[in-house]
Design a protein that fits this description.
By secondary structure, the protein is of the alpha+beta class. The protein has twelve helices and 17 strands. The chain binds flavin mononucleotide.
Length: 444
């Protein structure tokens, strides 16, 4: 492989013809040959393509220009020199400041990226092939920063007549193992190799790479599009700070009651993390009165639910409002706690930190206060589960039969159950909820 710069190009502006200039330049190779050969790849800095295409604008409002050139902002970083915005351009490229460049241009102006980099590459290729009669590949490059690694590299943002990705999937390595994920960004590698001779300050905006002819194609091909990772496959489609903020903003609203679960199990780590979130709730008197019982397929779960069911039937029968049919219907609603992959029963331990008063009114208020702290903990737990995409339904039933719960589970009198939470992965997404209007909830 050989890489040489195209020397002696004049200052490029909108009157320049790049193909003509490259064709007439004196390109000399280490082996003494000159000019372009079949299979050469001509690598052109996007900035001069933009200059030829008249994509140079006044730099009055850089932020507005970035907005105009981008479809979304992934990350914003404030630092001593100002603010850097990493955006996705309308081409689908993710880069700082939408690739707007103020270096090597007249003061007061900046260069935007070419509007359609593949179209520019195809046009230049056609002209160069017509002039030289050779079969060439053309890459238009821009310099980009990288997630995880310091330092800039040149990348292919426009391509004609060259394979962008060299897919080794299914081939065998030297030890006979089948490669499963190896797809080489060949056009980016060629772009970077060319940059080694182009250089930023030397001012050679074009280089030619020889020896990569196995990747040069007759057709113009799909351009640089194959190099862009689809958003749904991109694990990093948002900056870290932005992703955290988005999570914080949406976590609470993402919790919805889920009443139908798949059979997929919910691992202990997720349940423990949810309990960890629960026990960060506020509580009176600096107390920590929360307790949780986690039940999966233990016989106790059936026993408890059977006992609660008996108690409920007895309660319903005790009032004449309910006939057998409506009792059966009501009981069916409790099935969720039998079928969910896991249930958590939250409790408040009234022996942990409560104050005792001489009068009933204050003791009742104290109890309310601890129940409220229990509610806060349960909400934390549900929100944490939702953050893991785990669904939950907080079912109130154990609140109505605390004695039964304590008797079956052999628990202390001081433990007050706060319902039971059915937990699992949602069978289908929750229906959208009508937005609620905060002022409607604010008392005047
Ligand atoms: C203390 C409490 C008890 C609840 N009990 C039940 C219940 O017994 N059965 C049920 O299906 N949902 C129960 N829910 C869930 C509510 O019905 C649910 O939160 C409400 O419909 C709003 O829906 P969302 O949670 O998706 O916002 C209970 C919720 C709370 C806070």
């Amino acid at each position: 492989m050989q890489v040489v710069a195209v020397p002696g190009l004049p200052r490029i502006d909108h009157t320049s013809n790049l193909a003509e200039l490259i064709h007439h330049a004196t390109i000399t190779w280490p082996d003494g040959t000159s000019g372009l050969h079949d299979g050469d790849v001509v690598v052109i800095t996007s900035k001069i393509v933009s200059k030829v295409e008249g994509n140079v604008v006044a730099s009055d409002n850089r932020d507005e220009l970035i907005d105009q050139e981008s479809v979304r902002t992934l990350a914003t970083k404030h630092h001593a020199r100002g603010t850097t915005r990493i955006v996705e351009t309308h081409h689908g490229l993710v880069m700082a400041a939408a690739g707007i460049d103020a270096s090597n241009v007249d003061a007061g102006t900046v260069v935007l990226l070419p509007k359609d980099c593949d179209a520019s590459a195809r046009r230049i290729r056609q002209e160069l092939q017509d002039l030289t009669g050779k079969r060439l590949g053309v890459i238009i490059t821009d310099t980009m920063g990288r997630a995880w690694r310091n330092g800039l590299t040149d990348n292919a943002i426009g391509i004609a007549g060259l394979v962008a990705l060299d897919d080794h999937t299914g081939k065998q390595d030297q030890f006979g193992r089948t490669l499963e994920m190896t797809v080489i960004a060949i056009a980016d590698e060629i772009a970077s190799a060319a940059d080694l001779v182009k250089g930023k300050s030397v001012g050679n905006p074009v280089a030619v790479v020889r020896g990569m002819d196995q990747f040069v194609t007759d057709e113009d091909g799909p351009g640089a599009a194959p190099l862009i990772r689809a958003r749904e496959e991109d694990l990093f489609w948002l900056g870290t700070a932005e992703a955290i903020q988005e999570g914080q903003k949406t976590a609470v609203a993402n919790r919805r009651t889920v009443r139908r679960f798949t059979a997929a199990p919910v691992i202990d780590e997720i349940i423990h993390e949810a309990i960890a979130a629960a026990i960060t709730a506020p509580a009176p008197h600096h107390s920590t009165p929360w307790r949780f019982l986690v039940l999966r397929n233990e016989p106790k779960r059936e026993q408890l639910l059977d006992a609660m069911r008996e108690k409920w039937i007895a309660d319903l029968k005790a009032t004449s409002e309910f006939d057998d049919e409506s009792i059966t219907k009501r009981l069916a609603r409790g099935d969720l706690l039998r079928t969910a992959p896991v249930i958590v029963i939250p409790f408040i331990d009234m022996a942990d930190g409560t104050h005792t008063y001489p009068d009933d009114a204050r003791n009742a208020a104290e109890r309310d206060m601890f129940m409220v702290a229990g509610g806060a903990a349960v909400e934390n737990l549900l929100v944490s589960l939702a953050a893991h995409d785990v669904g939950s339904a907080w079912i109130g039933s154990t609140i109505f039969c605390p004695d039964t719960v304590r008797a079956v589970l052999d628990l202390s009198e001081s433990l007050q159950p706060l319902g039971a939470i059915a937990i699992g992965y949602a069978d289908s997404p929750a229906k959208d909820r009508e937005p609620r209007n905060p002022p409607d909830f604010i008392l005047e």
